[in-house]
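Researcher: Structure for this, please.
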Amino acid sequence: MGDREILAKTVYAEARGEPEKGWESVAWVIKNRANANREYWGGSNIGNVCLKDRQFECWNGKKDIHIDDPATYARIKRMTDRIFDEPMRNDPTGGCDHYNNPKKEGYPAWTRNCDRVMKVGNHVFYKQK
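Model: Predicted structure, C-alpha cell format:
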C-alpha cells in the first residue's frame, strides 16, 4: 500500500462522517506532520506518519482499513490525491498538526501543549506550541 492510499484511508477512517472541510483538514494535519519530519510522528513520509503507533487511532492494531462506503472513499481519495501534491503554502489549517473529537475524548493532556486553531464539524484542530 502506497502513501497516497494510506493517506486516503486514514482520512476515510478518521473523518468520513465529517464535512468535506473536515476531510481536508485531517489530510493537512498528516501532511504538516510529515513536513515537520519529527521521529515521534513518523518522520517525513506520509505513510509512516499515518501508520506510526498510537498516532492515528484508526490504525491501532490494524494492517488495513475496511472501506464500506466506496463512493465516499472515492471522493476522499480524489481530494487527498490533490492535497498530496499541493505546496505547503496552500495549507488552509495554518499549520495544524493535531486534532481530536472532544465529544468522544474530552481534552486529553496533550491539548495543553497546543493552541486551538479551528473547529470543523466534530473535530477541533490544534497547532503544537
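Researcher: Any notable elements?
Model: The helical segments are 3-15, 20-36, 46-51, 70-85, 102-105. The longest strand covers residues 114-120.
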